[in-house]
Structure prediction request, 251 residues.
Amino acid sequence: MARRILIINPNVTEAITATMVEEARRTAASDTVIVPATARFGTLYIENRVESAIAGHAVLEALAEHASGCDAAIVAAFGDPGVFAAKEMLDIPVIGIAEAAFLTAYTLGRRYAIVCLTQRLGVWYRECAEEHGLAGRLVAVRPLDVPPTDITNAKEQTGRRLVEACHEVIDRHGAEVVIMGGGPIAGLARTVAHEIPVPVLDGVSCAVRLAEALVDLAPRPAARGSFARPPAKPSKGLSPALQTWVERRDG
Prediction:
Protein backbone atom coordinates (compact mmCIF):
# COMPACT_ATOMS: atom_id res chain seq x y z
CA MET A 1 0.00 0.00 0.00
CA ALA A 2 1.29 3.45 -0.91
CA ARG A 3 2.42 5.75 1.88
CA ARG A 4 0.60 9.09 1.98
CA ILE A 5 2.73 11.89 3.42
CA LEU A 6 1.20 15.30 4.06
CA ILE A 7 3.66 18.16 3.53
CA ILE A 8 2.48 21.45 5.00
CA ASN A 9 3.96 24.78 4.00
CA PRO A 10 3.39 26.99 7.08
CA ASN A 11 3.63 30.20 5.04
CA VAL A 12 1.10 31.40 2.49
CA THR A 13 3.29 31.40 -0.62
CA GLU A 14 2.13 28.75 -3.06
CA ALA A 15 5.34 29.06 -5.11
CA ILE A 16 7.36 27.95 -2.07
CA THR A 17 4.99 25.02 -1.58
CA ALA A 18 5.59 24.03 -5.20
CA THR A 19 9.38 24.21 -4.74
CA MET A 20 9.29 21.98 -1.67
CA VAL A 21 6.80 19.52 -3.14
CA GLU A 22 8.91 19.15 -6.28
CA GLU A 23 11.92 18.19 -4.17
CA ALA A 24 9.79 15.94 -1.94
CA ARG A 25 8.49 14.01 -4.94
CA ARG A 26 11.96 13.75 -6.41
CA THR A 27 13.22 12.26 -3.13
CA ALA A 28 10.27 10.02 -2.26
CA ALA A 29 10.03 6.35 -3.10
CA SER A 30 7.90 5.40 -6.09
CA ASP A 31 5.13 4.10 -3.83
CA THR A 32 4.93 7.29 -1.72
CA VAL A 33 2.22 9.86 -2.42
CA ILE A 34 3.04 13.46 -1.44
CA VAL A 35 -0.06 15.43 -0.37
CA PRO A 36 0.63 19.20 -0.38
CA ALA A 37 -1.06 21.84 1.75
CA THR A 38 -0.37 25.56 2.16
CA ALA A 39 -1.26 27.65 5.21
CA ARG A 40 -4.56 29.49 4.83
CA PHE A 41 -3.26 32.52 6.75
CA GLY A 42 0.04 33.97 7.87
CA THR A 43 3.01 35.62 6.21
CA LEU A 44 4.75 35.51 2.85
CA TYR A 45 7.60 33.63 4.51
CA ILE A 46 8.53 32.98 8.13
CA GLU A 47 11.57 34.70 9.56
CA ASN A 48 11.08 35.45 13.27
CA ARG A 49 9.36 34.35 16.47
CA VAL A 50 6.15 36.30 15.87
CA GLU A 51 5.69 34.88 12.40
CA SER A 52 6.59 31.43 13.72
CA ALA A 53 3.86 31.64 16.36
CA ILE A 54 1.30 32.59 13.72
CA ALA A 55 2.54 29.78 11.50
CA GLY A 56 2.19 27.27 14.32
CA HIS A 57 -1.53 28.00 14.47
CA ALA A 58 -1.76 27.70 10.67
CA VAL A 59 -0.02 24.31 10.83
CA LEU A 60 -2.57 22.98 13.32
CA GLU A 61 -5.41 24.26 11.14
CA ALA A 62 -3.90 22.51 8.11
CA LEU A 63 -3.41 19.27 10.02
CA ALA A 64 -7.02 19.31 11.20
CA GLU A 65 -8.20 19.84 7.64
CA HIS A 66 -5.85 17.58 5.66
CA ALA A 67 -4.24 14.89 7.86
CA SER A 68 -7.10 12.39 7.61
CA GLY A 69 -6.01 9.44 5.49
CA CYS A 70 -2.31 10.36 5.65
CA ASP A 71 0.35 8.12 7.20
CA ALA A 72 2.76 10.89 8.25
CA ALA A 73 3.01 14.67 8.16
CA ILE A 74 5.89 17.06 7.53
CA VAL A 75 6.03 20.63 8.82
CA ALA A 76 7.89 22.15 5.89
CA ALA A 77 9.41 25.36 7.20
CA PHE A 78 12.95 25.29 8.51
CA GLY A 79 12.55 26.25 12.16
CA ASP A 80 9.64 23.81 12.55
CA PRO A 81 6.82 26.15 13.66
CA GLY A 82 4.21 24.28 15.67
CA VAL A 83 5.92 20.91 15.30
CA PHE A 84 5.71 19.89 18.97
CA ALA A 85 2.01 20.75 19.12
CA ALA A 86 1.52 18.84 15.87
CA LYS A 87 3.20 15.77 17.36
CA GLU A 88 0.82 15.99 20.32
CA MET A 89 -2.15 16.47 18.03
CA LEU A 90 -1.79 13.46 15.72
CA ASP A 91 -1.38 9.72 16.14
CA ILE A 92 0.75 9.55 12.97
CA PRO A 93 4.43 10.55 12.83
CA VAL A 94 5.04 14.30 12.43
CA ILE A 95 8.48 15.55 11.43
CA GLY A 96 9.87 19.06 11.00
CA ILE A 97 12.28 19.65 8.14
CA ALA A 98 14.82 21.24 10.51
CA GLU A 99 14.44 18.36 12.96
CA ALA A 100 15.02 15.84 10.16
CA ALA A 101 18.11 17.67 8.91
CA PHE A 102 19.58 17.92 12.43
CA LEU A 103 19.01 14.23 13.09
CA THR A 104 20.55 13.27 9.76
CA ALA A 105 23.55 15.52 10.41
CA TYR A 106 24.12 13.71 13.70
CA THR A 107 24.51 10.43 11.79
CA LEU A 108 27.05 11.87 9.34
CA GLY A 109 29.47 13.84 11.51
CA ARG A 110 30.23 15.28 14.91
CA ARG A 111 30.27 18.94 13.81
CA TYR A 112 27.48 20.41 11.72
CA ALA A 113 26.67 23.92 10.52
CA ILE A 114 23.68 25.70 9.00
CA VAL A 115 23.81 28.22 6.17
CA CYS A 116 20.69 30.30 5.61
CA LEU A 117 19.20 33.35 3.93
CA THR A 118 18.89 36.07 6.62
CA GLN A 119 20.21 37.14 10.01
CA ARG A 120 16.84 36.66 11.73
CA LEU A 121 16.53 33.18 10.30
CA GLY A 122 19.94 32.38 11.75
CA VAL A 123 18.74 33.29 15.26
CA TRP A 124 15.56 31.24 14.87
CA TYR A 125 17.37 28.21 13.47
CA ARG A 126 19.85 28.12 16.33
CA GLU A 127 16.96 28.29 18.81
CA CYS A 128 15.21 25.50 16.89
CA ALA A 129 18.24 23.22 17.25
CA GLU A 130 18.30 23.98 20.97
CA GLU A 131 14.57 23.23 21.34
CA HIS A 132 15.05 19.86 19.68
CA GLY A 133 17.98 19.10 22.00
CA LEU A 134 20.23 18.81 18.93
CA ALA A 135 22.46 21.87 19.27
CA GLY A 136 25.31 19.97 20.93
CA ARG A 137 27.13 19.45 17.62
CA LEU A 138 26.09 22.73 15.98
CA VAL A 139 29.32 24.66 15.43
CA ALA A 140 28.09 27.57 13.30
CA VAL A 141 25.04 29.27 11.81
CA ARG A 142 26.03 31.38 8.80
CA PRO A 143 23.33 33.69 7.41
CA LEU A 144 23.88 35.66 4.24
CA ASP A 145 24.88 39.28 4.71
CA VAL A 146 22.51 40.39 1.95
CA PRO A 147 19.18 38.48 1.82
CA PRO A 148 17.28 37.71 -1.39
CA THR A 149 14.97 40.42 -2.68
CA ASP A 150 12.45 37.85 -3.94
CA ILE A 151 11.98 34.84 -1.65
CA THR A 152 10.33 32.84 -4.44
CA ASN A 153 13.53 33.22 -6.48
CA ALA A 154 15.92 32.60 -3.58
CA LYS A 155 17.79 29.68 -5.14
CA GLU A 156 18.66 31.63 -8.25
CA GLN A 157 19.53 34.84 -6.38
CA THR A 158 21.60 33.34 -3.56
CA GLY A 159 22.79 29.92 -4.68
CA ARG A 160 26.40 30.89 -5.36
CA ARG A 161 26.68 32.85 -2.11
CA LEU A 162 25.27 29.93 -0.15
CA VAL A 163 27.89 27.63 -1.66
CA GLU A 164 30.56 30.13 -0.56
CA ALA A 165 29.02 30.15 2.93
CA CYS A 166 29.27 26.35 3.01
CA HIS A 167 32.98 26.52 2.28
CA GLU A 168 33.38 29.21 4.96
CA VAL A 169 31.85 27.12 7.76
CA ILE A 170 33.93 24.13 6.70
CA ASP A 171 37.18 26.10 6.62
CA ARG A 172 36.62 28.37 9.63
CA HIS A 173 34.56 26.14 11.95
CA GLY A 174 35.52 22.62 10.93
CA ALA A 175 31.98 21.67 9.94
CA GLU A 176 31.78 18.03 8.89
CA VAL A 177 28.18 18.34 7.65
CA VAL A 178 26.41 21.43 6.29
CA ILE A 179 22.66 22.00 6.26
CA MET A 180 21.14 24.44 3.77
CA GLY A 181 18.29 25.83 5.84
CA GLY A 182 15.08 27.10 4.29
CA GLY A 183 12.10 25.83 2.33
CA PRO A 184 12.58 28.33 -0.53
CA ILE A 185 15.99 26.75 -1.32
CA ALA A 186 14.75 23.15 -1.25
CA GLY A 187 16.73 21.13 -3.79
CA LEU A 188 19.77 23.41 -3.86
CA ALA A 189 21.82 21.05 -1.68
CA ARG A 190 21.33 18.25 -4.19
CA THR A 191 22.41 20.34 -7.17
CA VAL A 192 25.59 21.75 -5.54
CA ALA A 193 26.66 18.70 -3.50
CA HIS A 194 29.52 17.97 -5.90
CA GLU A 195 31.05 21.39 -5.11
CA ILE A 196 31.17 20.93 -1.33
CA PRO A 197 33.73 18.57 0.27
CA VAL A 198 31.42 17.36 3.08
CA PRO A 199 27.83 16.06 3.13
CA VAL A 200 25.34 18.86 2.45
CA LEU A 201 21.74 18.34 3.51
CA ASP A 202 18.32 19.58 2.49
CA GLY A 203 15.60 19.50 5.15
CA VAL A 204 12.77 18.52 2.82
CA SER A 205 14.65 15.52 1.47
CA CYS A 206 15.70 14.41 4.94
CA ALA A 207 12.14 14.75 6.24
CA VAL A 208 10.61 12.72 3.41
CA ARG A 209 13.02 9.84 3.90
CA LEU A 210 12.58 9.92 7.68
CA ALA A 211 8.81 10.03 7.33
CA GLU A 212 8.88 6.99 5.02
CA ALA A 213 11.03 5.09 7.51
CA LEU A 214 8.71 5.92 10.40
CA VAL A 215 5.64 4.88 8.45
CA ASP A 216 7.28 1.55 7.65
CA LEU A 217 8.34 1.06 11.29
CA ALA A 218 4.73 1.68 12.37
CA PRO A 219 5.49 2.83 15.95
CA ARG A 220 2.65 2.72 18.43
CA PRO A 221 1.12 6.17 19.10
CA ALA A 222 1.95 7.58 22.52
CA ALA A 223 -0.57 6.65 25.21
CA ARG A 224 1.41 8.33 27.99
CA GLY A 225 3.79 11.25 28.23
CA SER A 226 3.79 14.74 26.77
CA PHE A 227 2.85 13.60 23.24
CA ALA A 228 -0.14 11.56 24.34
CA ARG A 229 -3.45 12.87 23.05
CA PRO A 230 -4.79 15.53 25.47
CA PRO A 231 -8.33 15.45 26.81
CA ALA A 232 -11.19 17.27 25.09
CA LYS A 233 -12.32 20.70 26.20
CA PRO A 234 -14.66 23.44 24.97
CA SER A 235 -13.28 26.02 22.54
CA LYS A 236 -14.27 29.24 20.80
CA GLY A 237 -13.30 30.95 17.57
CA LEU A 238 -11.41 28.09 15.94
CA SER A 239 -11.95 26.85 12.42
CA PRO A 240 -14.57 24.08 12.23
CA ALA A 241 -11.92 21.39 11.60
CA LEU A 242 -9.69 22.44 14.49
CA GLN A 243 -12.66 22.93 16.81
CA THR A 244 -13.78 19.38 16.00
CA TRP A 245 -10.35 18.08 16.99
CA VAL A 246 -10.17 20.10 20.22
CA GLU A 247 -13.69 19.18 21.31
CA ARG A 248 -13.58 15.61 19.94
CA ARG A 249 -17.05 15.91 18.44
CA ASP A 250 -16.00 13.14 16.07
CA GLY A 251 -15.24 10.84 18.97
